[in-house]
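Hi both,

Apologies for the delay on this - the queue was longer than expected. I finally got the fe (ii) ion-bound model through. Below you'll find the protein sequence and the ligand SMILES exactly as submitted, and right after that the structure tokens for the full complex including the ligand.
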Amino acid sequence: MNLTRFSFGDFEVLAVPVLRDNLVYLVCRDGEAVLIDAGEANPVFQTLDANGLRLQKLLITHTHHDHIGGCRAIQDRLGVQSVSPGVEPGEVPMLGTICRSISTPGHMAAHKCYHFPELGILFAGDTLINGACGRLLGGTAEQLFASLQKICELPDDTRIFGGHDYLVDNMEFALSVEPGNADMQARLDLYRTDPAAAIFATLAEEKKTNPFLRVGTAKEFAKLRRRKDCF
Ligand SMILES: [Fe+2]
């Protein structure tokens, strides 16, 4: 996938592909930017330079290497501070708007999602990844189920930006769970013509196509997660 831009009023979100299939994000306004995750530094430097952006802050969803591998180089070159996923959740002003960090353990024991309520966008890291969720690599199924339920309480028109492009694998799995589901098939088909539109869905679209948001209990969730681990 190529670099993709989205407008939200005065703000822009740049989705920057890094490494093999990771995505990091720049939220921008008036030449200032905040970065969410930093799997690799050079694509971030290039995007900042090409767009005349000054980086203010770096928000980390979780500490897997493919989300933090570029942190040190970015901090050293630009002198920005990073916000660890281990800090207390809360609201902080950023770029003239509010950023809420939400605790979403499960993929790891410490994981944060970053919600910009006035923009209607959520950076979901490896908690909710376009049509599925992250693996259990340190947290429990109960935690990840509860974290996804917490995300489901956000407004339905919230646009979700996850940490990877796993859309094809995720929709193929979703269709194996619900064969013939027209919404899932449509999302998979859309990927071929407009990958960004298929990947960066709203919460309402996720609820129709993400099997991990369509189970009612932590037990059912755990069973589904085990099934995907072997898919
Ligand atoms: Fe991860």
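Main takeaway for now: The chain has a mean pLDDT of 97.

I'll put the files on the shared drive as well.

H.
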